[in-house]
Amino acid sequence: SSTMSLSEAEVQSARGAWEKIYVDAEDNGTDVLIRMFTEHPDTKSYFTHFKGMDSADEMKQSDQVRCHGKKVFGAINDMVQHLDNSEAFLGIVTPLGKKHATQLKIDPKNFRLICDIILQLMEEKFGRDSKASFEKVTNEICTHLNNIYKEEGW
Length: 154
What we know:
Layout: H1 8-22, H2 25-39, H3 56-61, H4 63-81, H5 86-103, H6 109-126, H7 128-151
């Protein structure tokens, strides 16, 4: 469906939760990637320049990991700003999904992984309510990305 399933209240509380973690976008984005790479080492294979990095400390120091962590958080931030406008939201999600499906050929299950790690980090830092209020947003993002992948023939 092209319409968002979030109420105005849900949008507001999701934004509140996201703002707290987005304040430190680079550090938190980096932490999320490092967790993904450490807990799911196969995800590193998509990033040629991260392949040789095994320790979390090494990754934390890497400009490329930090830069991509910040980029991921920036993209989600754009989506969060447009949760109440499905056209604008899709305008961000669609090209991102297409690029990851066609050019980068990233397995779509990795979007769920990264979203789950973000939720985990939110819960650790800001409690269960933050996580709960952002869960619907991650579901929305993953659903739309999966739909784009289907359209691209995955």
